[in-house]
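[[Encoded backbone]]
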Amino acid sequence: MAWILIIFLILLGGLIAPFGDLLGTKIGKARFSILRLRPKKTATIVTILTGGFISAISIGLLLLVSEEFRQRLFVDIPFLQKTLDESKKALIPLQEERKKLEDKINNKERELNKLKSDIKGFRRGNVVIKRGQTLFIAEINSNSNIKLALAEIYNEADKFVQKIVIPNNKEAKNILLWRPSDITKIESLAAKGGDWILLIKTATNVLRGDNYVFVSPNLLENKLIVRKGDVIKSSILGKSDLNQKSINSKIQSLLRETRDEIISKGSQANEIKTRGNFVKKIRDFLKDNQNIKFKLEIVSLRDSKTAEPIAVEINILKIES
């Protein structure tokens, strides 16, 4: 049906077009005038009207013959126009939301750029305390007033940190900042009884001149780590190890193992102190004892608790074959 209609419209247009052209020519030759126009312009208007007549007939036939065309023209197009208008109205708040989102993104980018700039400045700054560094160690006895003890520890730690961070500002007070929840937790643990060690560590890197230092307090049990006379680590050396290089290497290895051992037991000591000239003692021992096996021992010189330094001596012993 559609193909027949299209062919019919083509034929109709082809028949009417020559008629319009002929009519325009006749009017032009007859010197006919409309609205006092020149005959040539009148002929042109007649030709245009003829073309419009062709279009009107084509549309009329389509409306008359094609139900689908009528549906599209009188139902679908108004519906689409209404939908388009509603979509435009719905788009307005979305455009406003988009603008707000773009503004937020721009603000975040500015904040990020500022943060990058601050980081660059931070890296160039004079770091006087590193993140995680232990600032202060104090003992707490559960028999004492916990709140009062914490206040005294805080004041001492605050003064100590001020000397490092802002030594020239004598009027500064309370530059240490810690979370109240940390203090509540510490008070709850200490109330259970026993002896404790309070460690105050920095939560961030600290630059010279900073007004505040964020810290993280931690409560540890003040327990015995080693007793006097305990052999913490030992190692046996054979005949092939009787040279200075091998012995020095073995001593360094034993000291590292000792350090790892006391840390695993909970020690907070920063270093291991050795007593006496153990190098000379070992050298003198080897002069009198050649071609034998011997043992190196790291021996504790005193009882040491959690926060106390570890003092040791290095003994060399002959092993009977």
